[in-house]
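Hi L.,

As promised, Mutator family transposase:
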Amino acid sequence: MAQYQITVDSQLLHQLFLGNSQDSGVAKLLESVLNQVLQAQATEQLGAEPYERTDERQAYRNGTYPHQLTTRVGTITLRVPRIRGGKFSTELFARYQRSEQALVLALMEMVVNGVSTRKVAQITEELCGTEFSKSTVSDLCKRLDPIVNAWNNRPLHDSSFPFVIVDALYLKVREEGRVRSRGALIGIGVNADGYREVLGVMLGDSESEASWSEFFGWLKSRGLKGVDLIVSDDHGGLVRAIRRNFQGVTWQRCQTHFMRNILDATPKSLQDEIHSRIRPILEAPDAKTARMLLEKVLEEYETKAPKAMAVLEAGFEDVTAVLALPEKYRKRLRTTNPMERLNEEIRRRERVIRIFPNRESAIRLIGALLMETDEKWASGKKYLDMTEYLEWRQGQSPISSHTKVTRIG
């Protein structure tokens, strides 16, 4: 990933920290930074700084042209370089604006459908112009929807995905004149090269076994393969769908959710104490040690916190399934935390909308954000070095073989 050196003058900093409008200061800072990045990209493509004489020069600058970019901190003006006898190319604001466009489109649809507040109408008019119509919304959707839908339905058969993490978050969607709760089912995977990918998003009527089975069937129809471990919470419909659609695959119950379940069943006076005793079980070096620690905790607290101990004992095998993997892979695969952070980003935008005007709007906004996240992951560092896992896997039976309970199917 390219790195650029950015400078910020003192006047800009003064406006940012001491100005009357915080958003105005942030907009000016963003505008300054992005314009410097554009100039740096032009230098990369030309092979020379402005006025620099060099044999590697590919072409010459020919001024700039203005390009307005709408953001949530205001409209900024980018000075896009012109290249004499050539064309300057950048994805700097094209990628960024997909999720921004989706956010604005959702707001516009709310106004067009007559379900928005006066404040939302004011925001959309400020962002999109003094007037907009149903045809304006339709035209903008036609530009963005094919891009998001093509990405969300792309083939997955080019790589195997040994590790998959799934989760759902609930949204409010207006359908047939009523506001309904719908589940956005999302999956991410770690491929055989060690990179994370967003596998896709689907809007389900609920987080039922049927909805999750439809989601998994859709992923498999697009080429999802090589799954060895699936991480999720303990939602009944989800776990049953995993059993049905991925027979022989190991299910790792999210340790973060599991700990909450235990503490919810624990007397308040014992919560800190039991938390400190369970953590070593989850972080044990192997399944044998975890089992030994489990027996000690059960013996000590079975009368003090019987409900919590029942939860602990019932979930032990599933929550320690990851201990069968080589140690270096356990930390990042024992919880759904990577998915939780993704959900937080979605929530940050969803709170602006509150109630989506239709299903298409929800998929557009979430899909655009996930698409940008996916591109960021693909161009960044590997999430996991898979070398040791692949070597270890060649000599192993399914990783769930250490216990019959852990194995799915």
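Strands lie at 60-71, 74-84, 163-175, 178-190, 196-204, 229-232, 250-253.

Thanks again for sending the construct details.

K.
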